[in-house]
Structure formats: structure tokens, C-alpha cells
Write a structure and sequence with these properties.
alpha+beta, globular, Nonspecific Lipid-transfer Protein, Chain A, 5-stranded mixed beta sheet, 4 helices
Amino acid sequence: MTLGEIADRISRALAEKTFNGSLKFDCGEEGVIVLSENSATTQDQDTDCTIKISQDNLSKLLTGKLNPMTGVMMGKLKVSGDMGVALGLSKLLA
């Protein structure tokens, strides 16, 4: 799944749920996905919170195959910035 496809999928989920704040999934060389104002884009911008994660692990996270807390403990994702925004992501993934 490409980052564009993942961003489209997140946008559809955001249409049904509210996400407060702004969050960036930083996938390094592959690019970024930014969640802001109840939409998702692959255009980079400053956000309240950044999650560094590989594109493969991002797909696993969004499909429930990677538990966020386990991912942090195993070093598969790193969170910086506003942790409250990162915790709000769990409502979106549910």
C-alpha cells in the first residue's frame, strides 16, 4: 500500500470520527502522512506530534497488526511532541 493510499484510507476514517490536533507519520525516505483538520495528506507540514515509523509498520499499525505501545517499546515507532495528540490516535484506529 502506498502512502497516498494510506492517506486516502485515513481520510475516509476521519470523515466518520473527530481527531483533535495535528499529527505526522514520518516514514523517512518514503515520505509523510499528515493528519490535520480532519483530513490526511502527504504534504509535509509542522504538526503538534510526530511519529517516526516505517511505511511497513505504519500499515501494520493501521490494520491492527502492530500494537502502538508494543511498537514504542520495541523501537518500531518513536513519538515526539504532544503525547495527548498521539493518544487521540487510538480513537481513530478503533
